[in-house]
């Protein structure tokens, strides 16, 4: 389910959300490579069928925002939630209603803001996105992703799963442009 994660240092920027320009995600240029600790190396191969889908080397299907495979229920919910979301300003929210009264299938996505993120001594301006998905009555999955505003490259991701209290924090340790 979770395929890749990323780490880095964060510094909160002081700009107000109202003064910030809208941001739109775009997949990194084909040939961009991001190495994570813990986690894999992501080799971006271009854009998938939708603006939020990125082709990742070695993966069968595109990944939504480079975070989750679009064949997985979480990835599909993330893709549906993002429909028409961009361009967005910090504080923008989108969501899907639950599929049944128990709340299963409900999702919420927020562009939480922008932060400086450091990878291998280089500072990147990152869009910080929070996404949650109610997978079952007892299970909610949360992704917090920081994406480089200029290139769309995933810089860090925190994955939390209430089932088994699992938490992974992965950070990029190197970004190699094409």
Summarize the structure.
With 178 residues, the protein is mainly beta. It has one helix at 73-82, and strands at 9-12, 33-37, 41-47, 53-56, 63-64, 68-69, 93-96, 107-119, 122-136, 139-148, 154-161, 166-176.
Description:
This protein is mainly β. It has one domain (32-176). The chain has one helix spanning 73-82, and strands at 9-12, 33-37, 41-47, 53-56, 63-64, 68-69, 93-96, 107-119, 122-136, 139-148, 154-161, 166-176. Strands 1, 2, 3, 4, 5, 6, 7, 8, 9, 10, 11 and 12 form a twelve-stranded antiparallel β-sheet that branches. A hairpin with a 3-residue loop joins strand 2 (33-37) and strand 3. The protein is globular and about 45 Å long. The two termini are 28 Å apart.
Protein topology:
Elements: E1 9-12, E2 33-37, E3 41-47, E4 53-56, E5 63-64, E6 68-69, H1 73-82, E7 93-96, E8 107-119, E9 122-136, E10 139-148, E11 154-161, E12 166-176
Antiparallel strand pairs: 1-8, 2-3, 2-12, 3-4, 4-5, 5-6, 7-8, 8-9, 9-10, 10-11, 11-12
